[in-house]
Design a protein that fits this description.
Blueprint lengths: L3 E12 L2 E11 L4 E10 L9 E6 L3 H17 L4
Antiparallel strand pairs: 1-2, 2-3, 3-4
Length: 81
């Protein structure tokens, strides 16, 4: 079975010493296609940190955003930020 991947949107940002690349990809296989969120995290080049990648279905992106917002609000409420 062969597959093909197309990228719809890619954004890269740096937070401290980490580089995050977020992309929405369409993975096409013989009889189906899936939109996936791909998050790639890369540390500084001189570190021994391994690169990390995660994939999940695009429709779950809202859950990630809401969880991040809840975490931010909790940190703010408790005066951590």
């Amino acid at each position: 079975m062969t597959s093909e991947t197309d990228s719809l949107l890619t954004k890269t940002l740096r937070i401290a010493t980490l580089t995050f690349t977020l992309s929405i990809r369409i993975l096409r296989r013989a009889l189906e296609s899936d939109r996936m969120i791909h998050i790639h995290v890369q540390g500084p080049q001189d570190s021994n940190q391994p690169e990390s990648e995660i994939y999940f279905p695009w429709f779950q992106l809202s859950e990630l955003v809401l969880a991040s917002k809840d975490l931010y609000n909790e940190l703010y409420k408790n005066h951590y930020i």
